[in-house]
Amino acid sequence: MRVAVGTAVFRSGLVKIQSWDSTIGLFRDEYKVPLLPPELAAYMATACELIAPVLLLFGFGTRFAAAAMFAQTLVIQFFVYSESWPDHILWFSILGYLIARGAGWLSLDAWIAKKFTPPSP
Questions:
Q1: What does pLDDT average to over the chain?
Q2: Is 87 helix (H, G, I), strand (E, B) or coil?
Q3: What is the model's pTM?
Q4: Lowest-pLDDT range, 42-46, 61-65, 82-86?
């Protein structure tokens, strides 16, 4: 699940940095995120889409990364593409699972917990 959602979101971030002027134009003319200037919204979304998926891939700070992506998907659902709810339900379910359960045993989170948690008596 981490790889699936991370890959999709990371690719979106790569598209944004390929043509920054087009990205700013999208945020100004199409996305129109409320309360934020288009430039700031573009930087925040792009940073989330490039950083959080890498964290997910390695399973490092998984709950934090998934929560950031969940929040971004909420903004997209309610303020940008409300008609895309069938796709967003899929992302919400995967990200919600990762927030609730963590990365699993094959992750840096699990390795760190094992390495630094004292053994139980």
A1: 95
A2: helix
A3: 0.91
A4: 82-86
* Residues in Cβ contact with 90 at an 8 Å cutoff, skipping those fewer than 6 apart: none
CA-to-CA distance for 99 and 65, rounded, in angstroms?
A: 9
Q: Give the end-to-end CA distance of the chain in Å, rounded to a whole number.
A: 34
* CA gap 66, 99 in Å, rounded: 6
12's tokens:
């979106």
pLDDT, one tens digit per residue, over 21-60 is: 999 999 999 998 889 999 999 999 999 999 999 999 999 9
C-beta of residue 36 within 8 angstroms of C-beta of residue 44: yes
**Rg for the chain, CA atoms, rounded:** 16
| Pure H helices in the chain | 2-18, 20-26, 38-58, 62-75, 85-101, 108-116
Q: Residue written as tokens 């690719």?
A: 11
CB environment 56-87: b (16+ within 10 A), e (fewer): bbbbbbbbebbbbbbebbebbbeebeeeeeee
Nearest to 63 by CA among 19, 17, 29, 113: 113
